[in-house]
Amino acid sequence: MTGKTNSSPLDKLGLRSSLDCALHIPIRYEDETKLSTIAEAIGSFGGLTYQVQGYVIRQEVMFRPRRQLLVQIRDDDGQELFLRWLNFYPSQQKQMSMGAHLRVRGEVRDGYYGPEMVHPVVKAVTPDAPLPSTLTPVYSTVAGVSQTLIRKAIAKAIQDPGLQISLKEFLPNELIAKTFPGLTIPTLISALQTLHQPSKSDDLESIQNRTHPAWRRVQLEELLAQQISLQQARQKRLNRQAVSMSPAPLERGVLNQFIKSLPFDLTGAQKKVWQEIIQDLSRAYPMNRLLQGDVGSGKTVIAALAALHAIDHGCQAAIMAPTEILAEQHYRKLKLWLEPLGVKIAWLTGSLKVKEKREAQEQISSGGAHLVIGTHALIQEGVEFAKLGFAVIDEQHRFGVKQRLQLQQKIDDVEVHCHQLMMSATPIPRTLAMTFYADLEVSVIDELPPGRSPIVTKLVKNERRQEVVSGLLAELAKGRQVYWVCPLIEESDTLQLKTAVETHEALVKALPNVKIGLVHGRLKSQEKNSVMQSFVSGDIQILVATTVIEVGVDVPNASLMVIEHAERFGYAQLHQLRGRVGRGSAESVCILLYGQELSLAAKERLQTLKETQDGFLIAERDLALRGPGELLGSKQSGDAMLRFIDLQKEQWLIEKTQQLSVALLSNYPEIAEQHLSRWLGSRAEYLKA
Ranges for the Helicase C-terminal domain (predicted)? Predict the structure, then answer.
């Protein structure tokens, strides 16, 4: 470890040593090497960034329509440009006093007073100050830590003699050359120097778009650390002991009784997945399988089969869901299916009264409960299982890594570990499965049960909402039910969107003879569940809701979904919400209501949803739009583990690096450990969830 930086603001970013600073790689670059005239910048509107300079000829704090700082500059050609700040400090006013010469960088747009830059980057310079000769790095930061402070710390760190030792080369050259034939791979120290301080002779374009050999080295390093960690996690799991459950169902067991009682046949995809799971359960090490399937594809039946197989082998089973609504739905469905077979089911959520909670915990710890269903309450203090052999984590992406680890630790005995099945109706793109989920076996239910009709998706402008309301009556006349989803609970000053409360009031007024319910996240659990049960039973005909109904609500009689301000939702949310209908045999429709002004991204998103119901295609589009960090969330990945690689563009690099990680662990285990320690340190634990 090289010397401390001794800078408390930098501690917020985890930059405590020269090595930390060197590995804090730029997220992008600004090109300050060119200077344009104000006339050139004004003459080329359209999202481009320009750097211009001039003298301050006006500075004024305006108070209409809101407090703002307005500065006007003029260049040597007499052209003028306004600079505007909605948030500013006295130090900025002082820097931009009358007569000061400024170099400013930003996007030019047409403002109220004329051409303007809003919140540009500003430097006070002399008129003949030289321009930088190379790109200016921009680093990820937090409040209170300036780019200047980070750049100084990193420039100092790069000169630290001890850094050469910390960044010494230990990856075997012959192994890299064999894995990446024909690819120029610089040393790590030279790659980092290039990325922090690119020179004039470097290919600046390839540095900007992250294809430069220096980037390739860093991408390889980071990806390799992740893959080594996942390979190690997999090996540790294979070395653990779990209850081995015979693949042949017990002749007189509850599993056989349940299979005989099913009023339908499993689809081909369900049968295939069930065989994969039952083979896993027969092994002496714990299963770690992800079951993917679109909404309504029949994942719950598979979870029930696996739970009963575990119960037949003398183990308890558990199902953990992210919301009480989804957990209760599992509870009601499985109680109906399994209690007649003599299976005792315990129910445990945070909203239970103290006495009910204590009774449930006693059933769980005594082994009186064969199957336990609940929310996060399953991983809280006081919950001890007698012999938990199998656990289902439903909508696993809704749980954080720490929570999933906690469940694993909660159910792990000193000797015997638990088989885990994670379920998700949000398909995971192949590149994410290869990286963040590489330790999981993946099963896919890729067909819907027979009798299900495809959902028709329609795009409708908000101004035609009255036609939509009229259309509701036709659907209700057939005895069907309707969801109406809104993005906000109450009106917001900044987002003038239709809200659940307002929409509920409007529909009650427009349809006085229709029973209309309202459910949202601010309701108490009891109220929420009461409304949901009224909808499930058919007492409520139209349910106005926020996205609390996104996951897991199963009402086969609901055949129409209206999503208000659909442009405000992401791919995954729209796909999940749409999946709440089409769960019966009646033809179902999803109407995406949208506002007047749509961004290009929103247009593409809505058009994709209209054209396809393929969850995997939608997931790929979502990954392209948001990237893995946002898609997984920091809860999922512990930290953004892969900051420097575009997973979709660099799939070849992922495949090659996987090969390299296997070779390293097999032939150079000490080097693999060194590499992991340098890049991930304690964060490696997150990848093992």
Answer: 455-624
- With a cut of 50, say whether residue 635 has pLDDT above it: no
What's the confidence (pLDDT) of residue 546?
Answer: 85
**Residue 649 confidence class, pLDDT cut points 50, 70, 90:** confident
Q: What are the φ/ψ torsions at residue 258 (nearest 5 degrees)?
A: -65, -45
Q: Which residues pair with 392 in a beta bridge?
A: 319, 421
The 3-state secondary structure of 235-249 reads HHHHHCEECCCCCCC
**pLDDT cut 90: percent of the chain above it:** 43
Q: What is the pLDDT of residues 135-153, one digit of tens each?
A: 889 998 888 788 889 999 9
DSSP symbol at 65: S
CA distance 335 to 340: 8
- Residue whose token pair is 């909670």: 357
- The whole-angstrom separation of Cα 672 and Cα 668 is 6
User: By the 8 A CB rule, do 159 and 55 touch?
Assistant: no
The predicted model gives 237-257 an average pLDDT of: 88
Q: Which helix or strand (DSSP H or E) is residue 570 part of?
A: none
Q: Residue 116, SS3?
A: strand
Q: Where are the domains of the chain?
A: 8-28+140-209, 34-131, 243-445, 455-612
What number does CATH give the domain 243-445?
3.40.50.300
Q: How far apart are CA 296 and CA 578, in angstroms?
A: 11
Reported CATH class of domain 34-131: mainly beta
Backbone angles phi, psi at 173, to 5 degrees: -55, -40
Is residue 95 over pLDDT 80? yes
Q: Do residues 606 and 594 touch, judged by C-beta distance below 8 A?
A: yes
CA distances from 307 to 58, 278, 411, 647 (A): 74, 11, 15, 35
Res 101 pLDDT > 60: yes
Phi and psi at 8, nearest 5°, equal -65, -35
Nearest-angstrom CA–CA distance, 221 and 208? 19
SS3 labels along 423-445? EECCCCCHHHHHCCCCCCEEEEE
Kindly report the CATH number that applies to the domain delimited by 455-612. 3.40.50.300
Nearest to 277 by CA among 253, 301, 261: 301
Give yes or no on whether 34-131 and 243-445 have one common fold: no
Tens of pLDDT, residue by residue over 452-465, are 778 999 999 999 98
